[in-house]
Design the sequence.
């Protein structure tokens, strides 16, 4: 029996140990690169999942362990995704399986309980040798027609893997790999006060009373909702259930892919009528498809009709027999787009985002993999869809930093889109009204094709923006919050049957509390960040780790009843506006709405359908929504965004203000924007008001060049975090010393600027201390090799597992 050597990447392997491990296997089974297997690992032969990334038929067999089991009868992923795994491992300082987890959906098998064997009765037992007969008897003695691999493993039969392979090949065993379709369905408990519970005096603690009082008015609430409004954890709730005070039952929230598509009801004409400018841009892009540049930047002012051009490009892609991916930065936008795509492309459309259950994700993934889907719509995870023959990838609102992963592997979606498009000879279109400085720079300098749409669709005017100087009445700002100009404009807007959007980039009621006696700010015990007051649940909450505590107005430092409230969030804006305009129908849209029973997509649909007059929200309201009745946008305090240590702060505020202003006047009525600020002469405020992207870009580029920031270099941030601050700082210092030593010895000609370790902007986050090293560099193969060498040498010399090291190139610098 011929043996081959499989090169396998393993799960749960540290970065320094992440290599391809060699295992022996029988050639006659017919292995494929991309198949997942289970193998013994280490001295204890613990079972690990692995993925075959290479097959070596010429190698000597040697003394190698054999694989334990095969998960996939055939490879579930194509060669392009296998190459993507290898490419991302080298580019983003991660392990093979870090990438594999992004590609394979949860719930598609891989556990020992899901791999089973059925014993067939029609075979000649006389042809089996003694060892094979002994093994078969043991399996049959288990008394089951279908036996799991886990049970077979428990037999501890010597060299059973070869026998198992022989039985499968000759039809003695039929292998069954089950997919657990219950995985990830939104199965959760909801709670109510029991009908038999009448004696409230038996409630011993305040926590128990809070839970029962809340559930008396809000039956069938889940743990998350109860926790948000009472601050009580699962332990108290479960104890009340055991005592019979509360009752619970499971509920399952499941939508089939068809239901997901039909969550919106938008009538879209099959034929798209392009304006002259849109036709001109579309024809230019089509004519340039054959050129060597993979990437194009479609820059168009807000409301110019970029989406219509992009849809026509997808039409052209499908007509040519190829497939397309369309990405958006926010889950909320997928609901708006899905019906649009569904109406045009029918069952050939799939949607992917992080809110899908595991089973929904697997169901969609399998349809894409088997070629039933031609157009994939989704957030950044859609870039990993197992789509073949990719002709076009669209990255809409490409400036948004949500396209950059904040967790390892810290990948850039735009880079992966470009890599995947090149694999299939396809094209990438980056689209935005406020392109990132780097993308526009590459387009202006010829790396990307550049297409500009300078006019709104049907020649509608851009909104007129009024800058209101809040210094004129600053003494009463905290009391009023609204300028007279904004209030009068809101009154007129509602009176005329139109709608308004108000942007305030902080959720909660007040952003921080300060003691008037000892001057201490109330801080989160887990983070170096202040707690925000939420009036909806009368609690102080941390927006980083989720910690919350009941607001008693008592200073935790001096114990005096002397807390003063500062700052403004969405909840306070809502309260003040209701006081000033009591008849206004107001919808608040921020991340807190996820705790409410109404979904985000339902709230957006209700606003678009005219059930609300005013939408108050954080930055999510600025991201690509098309509300026909919105004619007024108010920016409550533009100064909240101006002063930040991130070198991209100017770009972020310009994009945010310009984008939210662009939500107004997108149909027949003209639009207007009011920007409230204490810095009316600031360049960013002025340029945002005039929506002058080109002038902003020129100013910002000169600053970036002076400061040596992207696009003139890359910035690699090496992050260190752990529970013990001394160990974290020690790790950072050791890594810094290694960087300097290796750079001087082996990379002396490579241009680098390595800065001393410093505290992260938020030093303590979720009880983890955080330090960082900043390196200004050129992100090429040589530099990545330098960081890889440093990481490997660091892990050899610094063996503390309590400190995590995570390099990231060009990250979001706000944390």
Sequence:
């Amino acid at each position: 029996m011929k043996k081959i050597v499989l090169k396998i990447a393993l799960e749960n392997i540290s970065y320094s140990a992440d290599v391809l491990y060699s295992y022996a296997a029988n050639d006659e089974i017919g292995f494929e690169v991309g198949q997942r297997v289970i193998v013994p690992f280490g001295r204890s032969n613990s079972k690990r999942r692995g993925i075959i990334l290479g097959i070596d038929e010429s190698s000597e067999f040697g003394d190698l362990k054999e694989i334990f089991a095969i998960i996939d009868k055939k490879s579930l992923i194509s060669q392009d995704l296998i190459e993507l795994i290898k490419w991302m491992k080298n580019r983003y300082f991660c392990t093979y399986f870090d990438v594999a987890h992004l590609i394979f959906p949860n719930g598609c098998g891989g556990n020992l309980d899901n791999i089973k064997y059925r014993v067939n009765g029609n075979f000649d037992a006389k042809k089996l040798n003694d060892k094979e007969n002994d093994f078969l008897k043991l399996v049959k003695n288990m008394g089951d027609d279908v036996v799991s691999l886990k049970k077979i493993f428990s037999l501890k039969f010597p060299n059973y893997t070869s026998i198992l392979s022989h039985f499968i090949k000759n039809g003695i065993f039929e292998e069954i790999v089950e997919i657990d379709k219950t995985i990830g369905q939104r199965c959760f408990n909801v709670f109510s006060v029991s009908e038999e519970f009448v004696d409230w005096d038996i409630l011993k603690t305040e926590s128990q009373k809070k839970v029962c009082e809340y559930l008396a008015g809000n039956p069938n609430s889940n743990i998350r909702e109860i926790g948000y409004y009472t601050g009580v954890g699962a332990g108290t709730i479960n104890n009340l259930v055991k005592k019979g005070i509360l009752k619970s039952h499971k509920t399952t929230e499941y939508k089939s892919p068809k239901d997901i598509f039909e969550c919106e009801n938008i009538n879209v004409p099959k034929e798209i009528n392009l304006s002259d400018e849109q036709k001109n841009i579309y024809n230019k892009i089509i004519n340039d498809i054959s050129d060597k540049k993979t990437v194009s930047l479609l820059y168009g002012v807000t409301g110019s009709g970029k989406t219509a051009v992009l849809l026509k490009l997808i039409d052209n892609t499908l007509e040519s027999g190829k497939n397309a991916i369309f990405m958006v930065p926010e889950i909320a936008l997928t609901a708006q787009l899905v019906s649009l795509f569904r109406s045009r492309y029918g069952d050939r459309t799939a949607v992917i985002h992080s809110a899908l259950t595991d089973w929904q994700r697997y169901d969609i993934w399998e349809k894409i993999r088997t070629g039933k889907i031609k157009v994939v719509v989704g957030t950044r995870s859609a870039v990993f869809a197992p789509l073949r023959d990719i002709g076009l990838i669209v990255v809409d609102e490409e400036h948004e930093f949500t396209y950059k992963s904040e967790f390892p592997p810290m990948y850039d979606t735009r880079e992966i889109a470009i890599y995947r498009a090149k694999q299939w000879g396809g094209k990438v279109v980056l689209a935005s009204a406020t392109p990132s400085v780097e993308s526009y720079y590459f387009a202006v300098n010829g790396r990307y094709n550049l297409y500009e749409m300078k006019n709104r669709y049907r020649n509608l005017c851009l909104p007129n923006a009024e800058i209101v100087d809040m210094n004129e009445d600053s003494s009463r700002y905290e009391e009023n919050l609204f300028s007279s100009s904004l209030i009068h404009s809101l009154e007129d807007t509602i009176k005329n049957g139109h709608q308004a959007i108000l942007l305030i980039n902080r959720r909660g009621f007040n952003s921080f509390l300060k003691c008037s006696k000892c001057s201490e700010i109330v801080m989160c015990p887990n983070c170096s960040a202040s707690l925000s007051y939420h009036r909806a649940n009368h609690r102080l909450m941390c927006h980083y780790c989720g910690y919350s505590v009941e607001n008693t107005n008592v200073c935790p430092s001096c114990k005096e009843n002397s807390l003063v409230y500062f700052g403004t969030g969405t909840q306070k804006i809502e309260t003040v506006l209701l006081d000033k305009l009591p008849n206004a129908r107001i919808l608040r849209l921020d991340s807190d709405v996820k705790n409410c029973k109404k979904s985000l997509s339902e709230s957006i649909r209700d606003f678009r359908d005219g059930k609300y007059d005013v939408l108050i929200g954080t930055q999510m309201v600025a991201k690509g929504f098309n509300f026909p009745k919105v004619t007024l946008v108010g920016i409550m305090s533009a100064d909240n965004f101006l002063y930040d240590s991130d070198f991209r702060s100017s770009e972020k505020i310009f994009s945010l203000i310009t984008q939210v202003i662009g939500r107004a006047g997108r149909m027949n009525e003209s639009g207007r924007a009011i920007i409230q600020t204490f810095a009316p002469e600031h360049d960013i405020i002025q340029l945002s008001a005039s929506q002058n992207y080109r002038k902003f870009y020129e100013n910002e580029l000169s600053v970036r060049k002076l400061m040596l920031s992207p696009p003139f270099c890359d910035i690699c941030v090496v992050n260190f975090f752990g529970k013990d601050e001394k160990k974290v700082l020690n790790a950072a210092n050791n890594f810094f010393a290694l960087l300097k030593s290796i750079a001087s010895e082996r990379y002396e000609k490579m241009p680098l600027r390595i800065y001393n370790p410093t505290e992260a902007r938020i030093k303590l986050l979720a009880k983890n201390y955080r330090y960082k090293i900043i390196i200004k560099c050129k992100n090429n193969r040589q530099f990545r090799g330098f960081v890889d060498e440093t990481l490997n040498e660091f892990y050899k010399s610094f063996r503390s597992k309590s400190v995590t090291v995570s390099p990231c190139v060009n990250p979001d610098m706000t944390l």
User: Anything to note?
Assistant: Residues 788 and 810 are 17 Å apart (CA to CA).
